[in-house]
């Protein structure tokens, strides 16, 4: 790679290359261009988008792309190999070829900003190690919770804390669906169809609805918060597709709101990491996060409880996070301090099985409506150490009844053992729902 | 000042000196000591508290101060003049002698962290200019909203945005008092006495109750958000001492919650900056911020709406912010990049008189209970361009009646003109309350 001494004076622009120009890329580009004079003052050197690469410039959506003075790059590799580019902004999405491009950019001693949660969750270790090796910056604020500055808060502002617990609403699609179910009484399928019509959900909604997206984000947040690498496969994951209006309605009656939560906590035995629909007590600040909004609630050893709230997706909010990263890196370039914030996964903490979780549970089961059933179930629960906080029997049709239980705190493995025995009872038709409860 | 080349190797500790060891100082010290191994890894160099200065070590509260290896400095000047100190942490409070000490520390090429809102609000210009001149860091996250990382968010994460509007609950004392009035129906004096008993309010509560504290914080936040220096005297300020339960109760009836808000906004004509009790619509996320908690709601050109929530005071939360700043500066020292985040007050924006504000108003007035009064007041309002959204007449005793108005948006100067004429009416006994309304 040629030396670029002449390009490091304070008058020379810091050159940026974009890989991808979809929702996120265009939002970042617009944010950058709209505020360039102020950003230049903040950095102390001019910034310029030198080139933009997309898969196919002939697609109609690029016809009017406002590229200003940026060049249309031949392809993504041309950006990554361009010796004049200082910062590569990866907004293509997907793991490949993004990973190869980002790694090559780092090897070429370029700094990288990415909005790609899947990339960081799946290949973060390798990518962060390469950045550290080269002494350059890799930043990915936009990969989690759109415009909400949670990653920088964890890495810098809260860096003096031991993070004890973190609860996030980090997937706008499922939060929109659950909000519709709660506020308007739609069934899941109706709310999903509406989310798809409004562009909040993909045609194939699996990644959102089954909690994959939230698990990516939790693995990224947890790696930073707990200073120990968390692979996405280590996150216990349950989606929201099985929820019915009955569960939403019981939540209301019992003083809870159903939310898909991403929860990370450190216990003396290790880390517990899980994504699942949850009965969240109505007094918790996260219950007021509705629609497509995101929020992350953090408990730190000194700071106590803090919460960050905002738009978790969208072109400009995500663009705001990308540009925040660009400015941070540009300031490092200006002060010859790239690599200033290396990877902080210093530890190798044990990650516990979800069965180790100690929490309250909400259980809904259908049983035969005859005497003694409630008693037999309660006995099994008691024998396994599951203490009942409240119980509600209803919908007695003469043949079938529905029993809803909320337990006190219990280790999950004990509850699972009890439920196996309950399920085996003749009088129990099925255990419809089993959700964890957060107060 | 002697050269300290030998002290810049990665093995040599970065030395910290504390000025003051009260609530904030002790919280910062404890946070730092509790997490030192992790902090050392994050910075890439060890950190050590070399010395601590307090006014009088003989006070009983210092008898058991856990100073570890830190020395008890002769006085604050000894810390500021010590060539081995790299970072001075000012937690003494008050403007003098803090300002002289901080300025001398900066002249001695030391970096400074301060938790002192009054210092930054009153002497910020001079202090930030001196830091820029010396190429060192001055950081003050703890000066606003305790542990909530709002300053770093505005300076870094949201740096790509033009900030349009900012609404803060930044004074825990008044928020505690208003929460008690709202939730338990206490009168102001009762709630204040309780806040004093719990240590949330000072013996002399003027600084909190009259909005001075919130005005300091707004002047700091606005200077950063709007990139233009705001002096605290330029913030319009009204306190909460005049509020009665009647105002709280009407708020509830009309769908509002009364909060002391610090509001900064940029209009095409200039900046509007004001601290006052406000009727805030119950759907606004800030209404759920109760007790001594703080929150800041920000609207940016790209990020849209974001909110930051947490503990606005207290030893450890404030200590968390101080240590976040220490870590940031230590990373800059490690990478020879101090001065990386200089003052960003590039502009000199016009600051508008509060009379230019365009907002809705809540008005409560006592009038003679006779025919035609309502009509005459309504006519005056209408003639001055004040359009009425709702009106409520009650408490008719036969002699006196109470009229409560909520207006549509109107320029404040027009409302003031109308109120002068209303006040002059024989039938109007007094205008009890006039509050601005936020939706």
Question: Helix and strand layout, with pairings?
Answer:
The structure is a homodimer of 439-residue chains.
Chain A: E1 14-19, H1 23-34, H2 36-43, E2 47-53, E3 71-72, H3 76-81, E4 87-90, H4 98-107, E5 111-114, H5 117-134, E6 138-139, H6 150-157, E7 163-169, H7 172-184, H8 188-197, H9 206-209, H10 212-225, E8 236-237, H11 245-254, E9 256-267, E10 270-281, E11 293-300, E12 304-311, H12 315-334, E13 358-368, H13 373-383, E14 388-394, E15 400-407, E16 410-411, H14 412-424, E17 428-438
Parallel strand pairs in A: 1-2, 1-4, 2-3, 4-5, 5-6, 8-10, 10-17
Antiparallel strand pairs in A: 7-9, 7-11, 9-10, 11-12, 13-15, 13-16, 13-17, 14-15
Helix pairs in contact in A: 1-12, 4-5, 5-10, 7-8, 13-14
CA-atom Rg of chain A in angstroms: 25 Å
- Total strands of chain A: the figure is 17
Distance between the termini of chain A: 56 Å
Global shape of chain A: elongated
Count of helices of chain A? Answer: 14
Largest sheet of chain A: 11 strands, mixed
State the main characteristics.
homodimer; alpha/beta; 11-stranded mixed beta sheet; 6-stranded parallel beta sheet; 14 helices; 17 strands; elongated; disordered N terminus
Task: Tell me what the structure shows.
Two copies of one chain form a homodimer. With 439 residues, chain A is α/β, with parallel strands linked by helices. Helix content of chain A is 36%, strand content 26%. Chain A has helices at 23-34, 36-43, 76-81, 98-107, 117-134, 150-157, 172-184, 188-197, 206-209, 212-225, 245-254, 315-334, 373-383, 412-424, and strands at 14-19, 47-53, 71-72, 87-90, 111-114, 138-139, 163-169, 236-237, 256-267, 270-281, 293-300, 304-311, 358-368, 388-394, 400-407, 410-411, 428-438. In chain A, the strands form two sheets. In chain A, strands 7, 8, 9, 10, 11, 12, 13, 14, 15, 16 and 17 form an eleven-stranded mixed beta sheet that branches. In chain A, strands 3-2-1-4-5-6 form a six-stranded parallel beta sheet, with helices on both faces. In chain A, strand 11 (293-300) and strand 12 form a beta hairpin. In chain A, helix 4 (98-107) runs parallel beside helix 5 (117-134), helix 5 (117-134) runs parallel beside helix 10 (212-225) and helix 13 packs antiparallel against helix 14 (412-424). The longest helix of chain A is centred in the last third of the chain and has 20 residues, at 315-334. The first copy, chain A, is elongated. Chains A and B meet through helix 1, helix 2, helix 6, strand 12 and helix 12 of A and helix 1, helix 2, helix 6, strand 12 and helix 12 of B. Strand 12 (304-311) of chain A pairs antiparallel with strand 12 of chain B, so a sheet runs across the interface.
